[in-house]
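in:
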């Protein structure tokens, strides 16, 4: 007695394998028909909506503030630029705290 092994060896991807035709709607072999869900419906979370709004705001904002850059360059050239280490540290800590909030 011999048995043929169908799944032995290289197999074609499932998308390329021939399939049996689906039964026609309303035929005796078809089962009950459920509600059809649109395949491209998407529900965005509140975070996703907020990020999309933020992306739009950032896209419309200038990449840099030319006036502040000019003022900083002038202050550096004149020796009046004061880098306050405590102020910078405070701002970095606040930034990290804001990032960690849920």
């Amino acid at each position: 007695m011999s048995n043929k092994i169908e799944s032995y060896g290289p197999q074609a991807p499932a998308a390329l394998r021939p399939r049996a035709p689906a039964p026609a709607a309303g035929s005796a072999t078809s089962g009950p028909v459920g509600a059809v869900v649109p395949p491209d419906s998407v529900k965005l979370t509140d975070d996703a909506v907020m990020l999309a709004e933020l992306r739009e705001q950032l896209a419309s904002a200038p990449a840099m503030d030319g006036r502040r850059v000019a003022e900083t360059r002038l202050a550096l050239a004149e020796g009046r630029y004061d880098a306050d280490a405590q102020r910078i540290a405070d701002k970095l800590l606040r930034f990290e705290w804001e990032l960690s909030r849920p």
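note: The chain is about 45% helix and 0% strand.
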